Each structure stands twice: as structure tokens, then as C-alpha cells.
Amino acid sequence: MNSAQPVVAVVGAGAVGCYYGGMLARAGAAVTLIGRPAHVEAIRQGGLVFEARGRTERVAVAAETQIAAAAGAQLVLFCVKSTDTDAAAAALAPHLAGDALVLALQNGVDNPPRIAARVAVPVVPAVVYVACHMAGPGHVRHTGRGDLVIGALRGAAHAAGSARLASLAATLDAAGIPCRVSANVEGELWGKLLINCTYNAISALGRAQYKRLTALPESRELMAAVVREVLAVAAAEGVVMPPGDWVETALALSQSMPEATSSTAQDIARGKRTEIDHLNGYVAACGAARGVPTPVNRALFALVKLVEDGLP
């Protein structure tokens, strides 16, 4: 990979894909955003509207609707919803360059192995901490953080070596994307799953920004209960969590992302199905398989599914 100016394709150019693709393009990378027609048309006409840190600019990027546009990319940002992972990975596979890296920028813990089962190049799991949303066609608005944690996928047939991980982290850092390489990316992914399970459903059901969730004692206790259940399931799964007080870590996130609303809340507001099956639903399923009670996660999962059932 050319760490200075890699050729980048973004598969699933929604908010996360547009933010990280936009950051790389601003740093000089040749970026192609592959997304929905409305976004692609707007970007083709006026560039990507990139709103972050009190500044709005237009970033020149290519935009396409077909996944074949990923051909020749050295770095593929894989940003589709978890529900679309299998189909998107299978569609992407024949277009990947032999020297490509696929960086999985998704919620949940099971996406990287699902992608790796369908492609013949290294898949790099990434833990994503960013608050952003699409403010309109071709218009991404960033509201908090933006850092990544990456690492090697255990047991993968095509795992990225330490040198490639270091090079990727350097590329991202140079583009203003703080990136840390972890020797325990599985634990880091479960840490992010814990955060998602703590915030996403409650933010969606309560129609509340993160700062409100932790300001109310009743919702703080609900969030703490979610954390304790996820930790119990992770332990039963044999996951080694990064050290620390995870209840305090989870609740403190609202201080760095006070204005954020969860992707689950955003999906529901747009009348779209959510990733709840891969968040609280995944924890509930793993808990059931391991004999670990998860009543709070199961209730949140059921309530979001009920809301989904009422969508048009």
C-alpha cells in the first residue's frame, strides 16, 4: 500500500463511509464512494459536502453505484450494514485487487469473519468510534470523535501481518484519523459491541441524544445493567476484555459525544430496518447459547424489533 496516497474504495458510502472516505480524500488519497443513487448523484454534481469541527467544505471524490468500481483499490473501506455483509462481500470478491486490504468499519463482532469467508485478501477488523450522520444527499455531518482501533483477525486464512497493520495505521493517522493497532482486537470489538448495546436501542427508543441518556438516573442504571450482561456473555465466550471499569467507560462516552444519537435511532427515523439483531440481539442469542441470562438486552432487542415491525 502506498501510505501517502492510497487508492481507496468505500463500499457502503453512508455516514461512516463518507466520513472516513472524506478524511482520506482531504489528505490526498484517490477515493471512490460506492453508494445509493441519491448520494452518488449529489456527489457527482458538487462533490462530497463534508461538515466537521465547525467547518463545511466540498471534497472532490469519485462516486459510483456499482460495486465493480472497487476494482484496483488498494484499500477498501467496508461500511455496509451488518444485515448486508454477506451479499456485499460476495459481490465485492471478484473485483478485489490481489494486493488489497479490506477494512471492516461496521458495528457488531461477527462481520470480519463473515467477510473473510468470502474474499481472498486480508480483512482488517476495525473498532469505530465516531458520531456522524448524513444531513442530506451527499452531505456528511460529523459530531464527535473519529478514532479507530485495528488488529489481526485470529485464525483467518489471509490475516494482515504486523507490518501491513502498522502501514495502514500510519496512512490513517496521516489523514487525521487517529488509529491504534491492538494485539487484542477481539476484546476491543466486544468493547465496542458493549457500547453499542448500551446506547443504541435506548437512544432510539427514548429518542434521546447521548447526553440525556446519562443525565437521567433511571436510564443510567438501565445502561449499567446492559453493560453487566454483555460482560457476562463475553466471559462465557472466552473473550478477554481490555482492562478497566466498563460501566464507567460506557457512561463516560456521552461526555465525548454529547450531541450524538445512535445509528439505530437514525435508521428508525428514516424508516429503515436496524442492525439490532447484531447488537443486543446478538448478545441475547450468545447468552442463550451459553446459558447466561440477558433479560435487559433481550427486552431492548424485542422493543426495537416491535418498532421495526411498525415501519412502512
Helix content class: 40-55%
| DSSP summary, beta strand count | 10
**Secondary-structure element string:** EHEHEEEEHEHEEHEHHHHHHH
Structural class: alpha/beta
| The CATH superfamily title of the largest domain | NAD(P)-binding Rossmann-like Domain
Tally of separate helices: 12
The N- and C-terminal alpha carbons lie at a distance of: 44 Å
Strand content: 15-25%
User: What is the general shape?
Assistant: globular
Please tell me the CATH architecture of the largest domain by its name. 3-Layer(aba) Sandwich
**Mean pLDDT figure:** 95
What is the class of the largest domain in the CATH system? Alpha Beta
Radius of gyration: 19 Å
CATH topology of the largest domain: Rossmann fold
Could you describe the largest sheet, including whether it forms a barrel?
10 strands, mixed
Whole-number count of domains = 2
As residue ranges, the low-confidence spans are none
Can you walk through the features of this model?
The protein is α/β, with parallel strands linked by helices. It has two domains: 7-182, Rossmann fold (3-Layer(aba) Sandwich), CATH 3.40.50; 186-309, N-(1-d-carboxylethyl)-l-norvaline Dehydrogenase, domain 2 (Orthogonal Bundle), CATH 1.10.1040.10. Helix content is 45%, strand content 19%. It is built from twelve helices and ten strands. It has helices at residues 15-26, 37-46, 85-92, 111-116, 162-174, 185-206, 210-215, 217-236, 246-256, 263-269, 280-290, 295-309, and strands at residues 7-11, 30-34, 48-52, 55-59, 62-64, 75-78, 101-104, 123-136, 139-150, 179-181. Strands 1, 2, 3, 4, 5, 6, 7, 8, 9 and 10 form a ten-stranded mixed β-sheet that branches. Helix 6 (185-206) packs across helix 10 and helix 6 (185-206) packs across helix 12. The longest helix has 22 residues, at 185-206. The N and C termini lie far apart (44 Å). The model has no long low-confidence stretch (mean pLDDT 95).
